Amino acid sequence: MTETVVTPPSGRTVRKAAPGEARTPRRSGRRRVALPYLLLLPALLLELLVHLVPMLMGITMSFRELTQFYIRNWSEAPWTAFDNYSVAIDFDAPVGQALLKSFLTTCTFTVLSVGLCWLLGTAAAVFLQENFRGRGFLRTLFLVPYALPVYAAVITWAFMFQRDNGLVNHVLHDQLGIGDSPAFWLIGDNSFWALLVVSVWKGWPFAFLTVMAGLQNIPRDMYEAAALDGAGVWKQIRHITLPSLRSVNQVLVLVLFLWTFNDFNTPFVLFGKAAPEAADLISLHIYQSSFQTWNFGTGSAMSVLLLLFLLVVTGVYLLLTTRGRKTSDV
Amino acid sequence: MRRIRAAVTGAVTLSLVLTATACGGGEDSGSSPKTLTYWASNQGASLEVDKKVLQPELDQFEKETGIKVKLEVIPWSDLLNRILTATTSGQGPDVLNIGNTWSASLQSTGALLPWDAKNFGAVGGKDRFVDSALGSTGVPGQDPAAVPLYSMAYALYYNKQLFKEAGIAQPPTTWDEVVEAGKKLGAKGKNGIGVEGSNLSNNIHQVFVLGKQHGADFFTADGRPDFTSDGAVAAVKQYVDLMAAQKIVAPGNAEYAQNQSLSDFAKNKTGMVLWQTPSQTFSAQGMGPDEWGVAPAPVPSGKPGTGKQTNSMVAGINLAVFKNTKNLDGALKFVKYMTSDEEQIALNKAYGSVPPVKSAQQDAAFADPSLAVIRDTLATSAAALPQVPEESQFETVVGTAVKELFADAAAGRPVTTESVRAKLEKAQQQMPKK
Question: Is any Cβ of chain A less than 8 angstroms from the Cβ of B19?
Fold first, then answer.
């Protein structure tokens, strides 16, 4: 039962059968084909159970009139074909209008949040590449928001954003004297900025961590060579660091985008059940459309639309970035 | 080879076991005839207080009947969602507390046991309960979805020290007097009256009563939403104008949703609040019972009554039995126990509410002046919130509209009849189509 493993330069692993095994090449060949699938089976079954089944149920629900009168026995809920969808995307009626507004708010919010998270994370990771006193401490400190439980962290922010007793207004208004009267952060238009601050605070350590890991793979000789050729810090970052981080960034931006776009916890803990219009993110909006008004059919239809949108964005993004990378690699 | 085969078998078995256990979770909940699961709402100053109040009573019940009650106190923010989830999955408690305004909405889901003559008979009959409390147990003409457990009503609570400092001799009885008192308090640098602008349910309770005073209901007689009538618009505007026009509510109240107005009151920042049973919270905030006074909530004429002189909703908690219970007999016994005179007196006393059971109401414990106001209000000038299946949605959409109007007022934007009507119009369009 000995096997020799040869790794060719292409990186692909080829197994060579030992002489004694040559008797039954077919059977063992089939086994080898089956083995990875069998090992994947548990993961596959669990994936079906925890992700696909609820998703399929959600899709089914979106075609039914699942209101409070039917939630006790779903199977009795009448089929409504595309009624729930037409309610959701009728942008002349209030439900559709509110959904569209929430969608646009979410898009703006996501672009800003992901952009800032990436910028802060990358900047911090690059600066912490240099070895200096206190680097370990700063690295730990920067990761704290990522390690805190979301609920505890966001509820603290909610306290800090309170108008009359919050720390934010205490600093901005009482000490720095900005504005005639203390601003509201948890209601009204400012709530968007409050949400953005919390989201960036919560999200950038992940960008920092990922970019920091990516930086470890860039050989130091490249920087030394570039320095010898007279490249300054900015040139090194532009021509060595960023191109080398390309594949890391590809995944990082995608993941941050999906997390931010779908984020439910942050707005829910910050604003409660009814988010102010300026910060009405889509996941909270869908929650309110289903749980608060007890209309799970329309809520599901909105969820399916969101799923389709995210699938399309992800697909297009991967297509564009991967194609770009292939051509640049050549 | 054998090792691989073993690994494969192991992996497949493990995955099957995991799948099977994942499917099999959560089947055991109170199916034994000797146990009951009870979801209590949060009535005391904290969940811990509730456990301390309720557990001895449940122990007593176990002693008498041999049935063990598993208690879970659920915060208000979760209760309705938990009930909806239990309804959807069929896995829930045997007996549960519901806010009485949800009765009709939950009744329409079919999740709760209807209280027909036979079930009422098992707990001593429908006649034991006060009429106004029975008016908030479901759609009129149908078997109630629950029985009343605790009754409450709104009243005007005032801070005696601040009233004295501002030279206000008598608590106000009309809205004009409220505004006048508020301005006097304002002149002393205090806030007139506190509101919870971001608390959707509280907003609804207040504008519902003001709606009554303007002769408006938020639903037509056949149960259709009617949020934009002149009376409804005037009611909402009058409430928000306490901040926007009269300026007797501090702008910061627009974001209150966690009883901050009660702490302001206890900390001598605010002179008045309209509230239901705040005495426990006051004492938890360090305010003694002789530092605050209570008067009937204001009405246009100064004399509470029915119709346009309504000054409170019928607030309260109902006790319901989950239809899926496997221990119906035990559940009925438990409801009978909780609505018995003795338990009614003990529990309502602990929570500062009034018993909805006639015979228990006569107890000396409820003759205290502060509770007498509540009892009189319930008996003569309180009205039940609309008993329609869409009540829960009404709370959400109109409550949100009032919250947004308060946000406008707090930011200094004008609140006009048109802007109020536009918000209510939008709210009405979000209601389910019939």
Answer: yes
Q: How far apart are CA B183 and CA B238, in angstroms?
A: 16
Q: Hunting for tokens 């309610």 — which residue is that?
A: A87
Rounded to an integer, what distance in angstroms lies between the CA atom of residue B209 and that of residue B413?
25
Confidence of residue A31 (pLDDT cuts 50, 70, 90): low
Are B192 and B248 spatial neighbours (Cβ–Cβ below 8 Å)? Answer: yes
Q: What is the dihedral of CA B256, B262, B266, B269, to 10 degrees?
A: 40
* Helices A191-215 & A94-127 angle (0-180, nearest 10): 40
CB of A186 within 8 A of CB of A193? Answer: no
Contact A139, A254 (CB under 8 A): no
User: Strand, coil or helix: what is A16?
Assistant: strand
- Give yes or no for residue A3 having a pLDDT over 50: no
Domains of chain A: 75-329 (1.10.3720.10)
CB-based contact, B17 to chain A, within 8 Å: no
Touching B: A residues 12-71, CB under 8 Å: 28, 31, 35, 38-39, 41-42, 45-46, 49-50, 67-69, 71
Residue pair B387/B140 in contact (Cβ under 8 Å)? The answer is yes
Which residue segments constitute the domains of chain B, with CATH numbers given?
35-151+315-383 (3.40.190.10), 155-313+390-429 (3.40.190.10)
CB B114 within 8 A of CB B142: yes
Is B226:B388 a contact under the CB 8 Å cutoff? no
Short-list B89, B96, B105, CA closest to B73: B96
pLDDT of residue B45: 79
CB proximity B225 to A under 8 Å: no
* Side-chain-side CA neighbours of residue A210 (13 Å): 23
Res. B15 pLDDT band, cuts 50 70 90: very low
pLDDT in tens, B353-378: 999 999 998 898 888 888 889 999 99
B16 secondary structure, DSSP code: H
Express as a percent the part of chain B with pLDDT over 90: 76
Task: Please state the separation of Cα B384 from the chain's center in Å.
Answer: 12
Comparing CA positions, the residue from B297, B265, B283 lying closest to residue B374 is B297
Angle at A290 (CA atoms; ends A288, A296), nearest 5 degrees: 175
Handedness of CA B261, B265, B269, B271 (dihedral sign): positive
Best mutation target, B1, B267, B425, B430, to test chain A (most A CBs within 10 A): B430
Q: Work out the average pLDDT over B54-59.
A: 96
> What residues in B contact A276, CB-CB < 8 Å?
404, 407
Q: How far from B123 is each of B114, B146, B333, CA to CA, in Å?
A: 13, 12, 7
Q: So what's the ipTM on this one?
A: 0.79
Q: Which residue of A has its CA nearest to B258?
A: A272
pLDDT, residue A29, reads: 64
Task: Please tell me the pTM assigned to this model.
Answer: 0.84
Structure tokens at A84: 């729930």
Q: Is the minimum CB–CB distance between B107 and chain A shorter than 8 Å?
A: no
Total count of residues recorded for chain B:
434
3-state class (DSSP) for residue B291 = coil
Contact call for A46 and B426, based on CB within 8 A: no
Is residue A161 within 8 Å of A140, Cβ to Cβ? no
Q: What is the pLDDT of residues A228-241, one digit of tens each?
A: 888 888 888 888 89
Residue A19 and residue A108: Cα distance in Å, rounded?
64
